């Protein structure tokens, strides 16, 4: 876990190094400290006046790190924190789902708070993001007493209601949320 490196944003020494992903991330604040993603294949894209290579070029004599080549599609933006990016994407998807269910901004904010709680407790790892978003919206619907059912959300998201139910139960139990029973 800790590699003797300090986070330049918060000063924490809790740094997670993942060689498979090729990055170093602060587990305290979520900052991406190093991201030298290596692409094993080259892609080409039509640039109007000819083809352009997309990806990163790594020379045999380079001492780690990568040089951007082409458009740099595989690069995480410099200075952007992975947690911020994750939350922005979640907000967009939760907002879209809530709008389809005709829920107001209050429900969007509440569902996003449940998502943040799940993210902080690492409950999102290994689960499909669409299931997490839908489960957070369903937890919100249950705690706020709306008439939305699990099957309503699974229909809108086009996901299996059993899988959504499993994700919902895992999140609500792990977050210790007291879910009221469905009204009469």
UniProtKB/TrEMBL annotation:
SUPFAM superfamilies recorded: Cyclin-like, Zinc beta-ribbon
Domain TFIIB-type: 3-34
Main location: nucleus
Entry annotated with the keyword Cell wall biogenesis/degradation: no
Single GO MF annotation: RNA polymerase III type 3 promoter sequence-specific DNA binding
Family matches, as PROSITE patterns: ZF_TFIIB (PS51134)
Superkingdom: Eukaryota
Localization of this protein: Nucleus
Keywords, alphabetical: Metal-binding, Nucleus, Repeat, Transcription, Transcription regulation, Zinc, Zinc-finger
GO cellular component annotations of the record: nucleus; transcription factor TFIIIB complex; transcription preinitiation complex
Family: Belongs to the TFIIB family.
Stated name of the protein: TFIIB-type domain-containing protein
């Amino acid at each position: 876990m800790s590699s003797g490196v300090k986070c330049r944003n918060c000063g924490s020494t809790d740094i997670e190094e993942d060689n498979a992903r090729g990055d170093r991330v602060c587990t305290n604040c979520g900052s991406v400290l190093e991201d030298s993603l290596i692409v094993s294949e080259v892609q080409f894209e039509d640039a109007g006046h000819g083809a352009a290579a997309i990806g990163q070029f790594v020379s045999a004599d380079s001492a780690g790190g990568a040089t951007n080549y082409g458009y740099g599609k595989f690069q995480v933006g410099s200075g952007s924190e992975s947690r911020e990016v994750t939350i922005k994407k979640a907000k967009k998807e939760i907002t879209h789902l809530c709008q389809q269910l005709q829920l107001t901004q209050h429900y969007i904010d509440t569902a996003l708070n449940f998502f943040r709680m799940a993210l902080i407790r690492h409950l999102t790892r290994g689960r499909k993001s669409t299931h997490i978003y839908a489960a957070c919206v369903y937890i919100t619907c249950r705690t706020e007493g709306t008439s939305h059912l699990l099957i309503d959300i699974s229909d809108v998201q086009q996901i299996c209601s059993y899988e959504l139910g499993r994700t919902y139960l895992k999140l609500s139990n792990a977050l210790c949320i007291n879910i009221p029973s469905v009204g009469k």
